[in-house]
Amino acid sequence: MNIALIAHDAKKKLMQNFCIAYRGILSKNDLFATGTTGRLIEEVTNLSIHKYLAGHLGGAQQLGAAIEHNEIDLVIFLRDPLTVKSHEPDISNVMTLCDMHNIPVATNLASAELLIKSLDRGDLEWREMYK
C-alpha cells in the first residue's frame, strides 16, 4: 500500500518515534512524505521514502494531487491543532480529498496506531477495489 506521512513541526519527533516503533510494518509498504518530515523519518529509520516538497512549499498540494489520482491508500498526518499554519488551506484540502476518495486518515497518535495495526492485519485490503 502507499502510505503518506505528514507531521506539523511540533509533531515531527512524535512521527519519528512512531515510524521507529512501526518500522517493520512500514517497510512492507511504499512511503510518501512531505519533504522535511520524510528526511527526518529517513534519518532515524533508514526507510526509503518518496519525498515531496516541504508542506509549506507545495508538498501538501503534491500530496493532494496524488490522492486525487488514487495513488495514496492511507494518510497519517500528525497535526498540531493549536498552531495555525500559513498553508492551512492546502492541508484542509488534503483532508477533504481523503474524505472524497475514501482514504483512511489518522490525525493523532491513537488513530495512527489503530490504522497501522489494521494495515498489518490486512483490514485495509478493500482499498484494492478502488485501484
From TrEMBL:
Broad class of enzyme this protein falls into: lyase
Residues given in the record as substrate binding sites: 8, 12, 34-37, 87
Catalytic activity: dihydroxyacetone phosphate = methylglyoxal + phosphate
GO function terms (MF aspect): methylglyoxal synthase activity
One GO BP: methylglyoxal biosynthetic process
Keywords for this protein: Lyase
Record's protein name: Methylglyoxal synthase
